[in-house]
Amino acid sequence: MWNQGCSHSIVGTSSYKAAPSKKAHLEIFPCTVSQLLAAAQLSNDCFTICNCELKQVSVVGIIRGFAPFVTNVQYSVDDMTGPPLNVKRWVNVEDCSLMTIAFPGTYAKVIGSLHSYSQGQRSLLAMDIRCIKDLNEISSHMLEVVQAHMKLFGKVFDVNMNTTVVPEPNWSSGMHPQGVLPNGLSTVQGQ
């Protein structure tokens, strides 16, 4: 259910920039909760998806739980791709008036870094939590997730979600995978 009940929001913008090479990482990697929970763990605070190190990630979901403490606020964020993810936001007494408080039932975008704590439980250490005011942001985030995933894996999907590996030579020479048009669409999608 759509709920716009958010208190004060932090001023500022968050965006991600695609790096020029395939081997480089995105500054803020858009992902789903299930991708974070399935990410390979190299060390206590180092995770990778498809050999790309996750430094900062963004997740969009509905707040299922909210627990304020003296030093932090803990949330449970659910994007319905897996079990809810624990999110922790440290509280600074001086910045309390600027902090976003997202209540259960509210959609929010969380930007932070993934950490693993005792018993292997993963949690997102939030640097920014912003309430979503337009439902198009949810669709936009999911499209960003798909685009980032496709760039990392270097694959094109046909209309039936079958994968076709994209060849490294540039497509301007006329080389395209069978059934894939120059714009990346399958022949059925092109029609």
Task: Report what the structure shows.
The chain is of the alpha+beta class. The protein contains 3 helices and 11 strands. The chain has helices spanning 33-38, 136-153, 187-190, and strands at residues 28-30, 40-43, 46-49, 52-54, 56-68, 72-78, 85-90, 107-116, 122-131, 155-157, 163-165. The protein has a 5-stranded mixed β-barrel. A 3-stranded antiparallel sheet has the order 2-3-4. Strand 2 (40-43) and strand 3 form a beta hairpin. The longest helix is centred in the last third of the chain and has 18 residues, at 136-153. The chain is globular and about 55 Å long. The relative contact order is 0.17. It comes from Xenotaenia resolanae. InterPro entries: NA-bd_OB-fold (IPR012340), RFA2-like (IPR040260).
Please tag this protein with its features.
191 residues, 11 strands, alpha+beta, globular, 3 helices
Number of helices: 3
By DSSP, the count of extended strands is 11
Over all CA atoms, what is the radius of gyration?
Answer: 19 Å
**Strand line-up of the largest beta sheet:** 5-6-7-9-8
Contiguous uncertain segments of 5+ residues:
7-26, 168-176
Task: Briefly note the structural class of the backbone.
Answer: alpha+beta
Tell me, briefly, the overall form. Answer: globular
What is the rounded distance between the termini? 36 Å
Major sheet, described briefly? 5 strands, mixed, barrel
Mean pLDDT score = 74
Order of helices and strands: EHEEEEEEEEHEEH
Q: Bin the strand percentage.
A: 25-35%
Helix content: 10-25%
Region (Disordered): 171-191
Organism: Xenotaenia resolanae
Subcellular location: Nucleus
Protein name: Replication protein A 32 kDa subunit
